[in-house]
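By way of example, what follows is a protein record of this kind.
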Amino acid sequence: MKWCVILVDVEREVGVAIAREAVKMRWQMLIAATLKQWLPTGQLAKNTVVVIFWQGMRVVAQALWLVLVARALGPQGYGAFAGIAGLGNTVGGLAGLGLGLVMYRDAAQYPIWFSERWRQTIMATTASGSLLAVGFVTFSGSLLGYTDKAAIVGVAVSEIVCFPFVTAAAFAFAAHERMGMSAAMPAMLASSRVTAVLAFLLLPN
C-alpha cells in the first residue's frame, strides 16, 4: 500500500512537471511568434539596425573625444583648438569637389561605372585635398590667431587630407548596398581619434 502511494505521488509530480514544461514551451512559442510578427527581418531592416548601431558608436566616440580633448587642453587651449578644428572640418568638406556623391549616384544605378567614378573621386580628392591643406596651413593660423603649427598641420592632415577619403570609401560601400560598412567608416575614424587623445594623455611627454 505504501509503495502504491509513493508511485501515485511520483506520477503526480511527473505530470505537474510535464504540464509546466508544456506551458513554458507554449509561452516561448507565443513570444517568438509575436517577435517575428513585430520585428522586421528583411534586408532593409537589417541594414537599418546596423546603421543605427554604428551611428550610436560614432556619437559615443565623438562625445568621449570631446571630453578627453577638453581635459587635455584645458578651457583656453580647447577653445582655440576647437576654432582650428572647426575650420579644418569645414574646409575638408570641399575636398573631392562632390565627386563622391556623383560616384554614389552613378554606381548605384549602373554598377559598371563604379571603377571609373572611383578613379575620378580618388584623383579629385587627392588633388583638391592637397591644395586645400596647403592653403589651410598657410592662412588659418593668421586668420584665427592660432600659433601652434604642429596642431594646424595635424588638423589639416586629419580633416582635409584623410577624412575625405573616409567619406569617399563610405559612399563606395553604400553604392554596393553595404550600408553597415558605410556607417562603420566614420565610426572607426572617430574611434581612432579617441585612441590618439588617449595616447596623448597617457604617454610621457
Summary: The longest helix spans residues 43-92. Residues 2-11 have pLDDT under 50 and may be disordered.
